[in-house]
Specification:
By secondary structure, the protein is an alpha+beta fold. Helices cover 40% and strands 18% of the residues.
Length: 159
């Protein structure tokens, strides 16, 4: 079957849990995929004792009982959502980096007492804040534009 999805499964980024700094390294310790990232395929009437599920370029074999209960496609690997999810993730990261700068540097600016009443200083700060707000708006639009429908294929076959 071929499906066009407007919602993405959440992909734990990184080297598949091989380094302590990637998000995927936490997967064995929390039920994230089972409880929060459910992209479930249910095959209630599979006639084979086992079936191979192919989702994009990734495949796995499941029992008839597992398929009837439902299998979480997100656990197969990144599949067809890897590139679109990475694009969204990078756009969000750019936005978050700017927001961090805005909060930690611009809004938390420690203004010297001697400059608090200086009109020129205040005008310069206002220009800087306005520039960051405009850039933030552009990056927020880029995040929304990065979320595009993904057409993907799921195949269930005999192993």
């Amino acid at each position: 079957m071929t499906i066009t999805s407007t919602r993405y499964p959440y992909l734990l980024a990184g080297a598949g849990g091989k380094t302590p700094n990637d998000a995927a390294s936490i997967a064995p310790f929390v039920p994230f995929q089972d409880e929060l990232s459910r992209f479930t395929l249910v095959v209630p009437d599979c006639t084979w004792p086992q079936a191979k599920v192919t989702w994009g370029e990734v495949s796995a074999v499941f029992t008839k009982e597992q398929l009837a209960a439902g299998v979480n496609l997100s656990t197969l690997g990144k599949g067809p959502f890897e590139a679109p999810f990475t694009n969204v993730d990078k756009a969000v990261e750019s936005l978050q980096n700017l927001e961090t700068f805005l909060v930690k540097s611009v809004l938390a600016m420690n203004v010297p007492r001697q400059l608090k009443d200086d009109g020129g200083y205040k005008a310069a700060v206002d220009v800087m804040v306005q520039s960051v707000v405009v850039k933030r708006s552009e990056l927020a639009k880029a995040v929304r534009a990065a979320v595009v429908p993904v057409t993907h294929t799921i195949t269930v076959s005999q192993p």
